[in-house]
Structure formats: C-alpha cells, structure tokens
Design brief:
Elements lengths: L6 H9 L4 H6 L7 E5 L6 E5 L1 H11 L7 E6 L9 E4 L9 H14 L5 E7 L12 E4 L5 E2 L1 H17 L4 E7 L7
Parallel strand pairs: 2-3, 2-5, 5-8
Antiparallel strand pairs: 1-3, 4-6, 6-7
Helix pairs in contact: 1-3
C-alpha cells in the first residue's frame, strides 16, 4: 500500500520533535519532550508516553486526516502531582513532571483543541515485562506502588484536563495479560 511509508523513516518522523510545534504553534519544546503538530489549529491533543506517539503517527504522517498535536515523552508517565525517580540509568524519563505540566498548559492555552487523548502504557507496573521502572511519591510525599501511582497519577491528570472544559479520552495499552 503506497499510503504507508517506509517504517524506519516513519518511526523517526513520529518519535522525535522536528520543529513543527515551534513553527506552527510558537511553542518551546522541553528537554525530553516530543512535540509534533500537523496544524496551527489542532483539534486533538494526544498526550502520554511512546504509545501516544504511536497513536499519533497516522495523523502526523497524513494517513488519517485529523488536525493533531502530540505532547509526549519516551517512557514517561505524565503524572502532574507525583514525584518520580528512575530506578535504572537511562537517557530519558527524567523530565516527566515538567512535560505533564506542559500538557496542562497546552490544554488551557490552545483554544482550537476540543478533544484530549491520554495514552499511557499499563506495562509500567509490570517489571517482568522489562519496562523502565520508577519509584513514586504521591502528593503527600508518601511512597506508593507503581499500580497506585498509575491510578492516582492518571486520575489527577484526567481531572485537571477535564477542568479545561474539553473532552478527555483515556487509553491504556496493556502489553500482556497473565494467563492465571
């Protein structure tokens, strides 16, 4: 099918900032943040981790005709009220809370956005899947499990996004389900 470009080229075009947010929206991109847009007036804001990047790919490549903006970060759970520490050495996953704050700012400040899609991987609390692991503190400064951070962090993000008056849809990509 000619509509689908070479995978390697498509991957690079949809997983790294390439200047579209700066050009079309006059937005500064944060460290570790991936910001992509195909319009100066996006109607959909897609936010989350690399799974959000994958969902946005078809729109950004022009395969699906929607006006979208992506704000995401590799291996980052966007929890605006939780503090995290990465438990392994990696070149990513250190600026998640700032990216979450930027998501909230974009949702408030871009009037053309009508719908926000929150896309977060559920594998974050499944260490046997080989995912990046974090340690989390809740808003009261107490250590919480990865599962509790996933629930509380996403609820906090969703409630704050709903407060903007825009429609919010939550997707959680479950990598593997145990058979038992």
């Amino acid at each position: 099918d000619q509509r689908f470009p070479d995978f390697g080229k498509a991957y690079n075009k949809t997983r790294f900032s390439e200047g579209s947010c700066e050009r079309l929206l006059n937005r500064k991109v944060l460290d570790e943040e991936v910001c992509l847009t195909n319009s100066a007036q996006p109607e959909y804001l897609i936010v989350g981790d690399s799974h959000a990047m994958a969902l946005n790919s078809a729109a950004h490549l022009g395969i699906v005709p929607i006006k979208s903006m992506l704000l995401a970060a590799h291996s980052c759970m966007l929890y605006p009220d939780y503090t995290h520490t990465m438990l392994m050495r990696a070149s990513f996953g250190h600026n998640c809370r700032a990216v979450a704050d930027d998501v909230l700012a974009a949702a408030k400040s871009i009037p053309s956005i009508k719908t926000i899609l929150v896309v977060q991987s559920a594998a974050v609390f499944s260490p046997e899947q080989g995912t990046v692991s974090y340690s989390y503190l809740n808003p009261q400064g107490q250590s919480v499990s990865l599962f509790d951070a996933f629930i509380g962090g996403n609820l906090s993000l969703i409630k704050r996004l709903q407060a903007t008056g825009k429609s919010v849809v939550f997707f959680s990509d479950v990598h593997a389900l145990k058979k038992n």
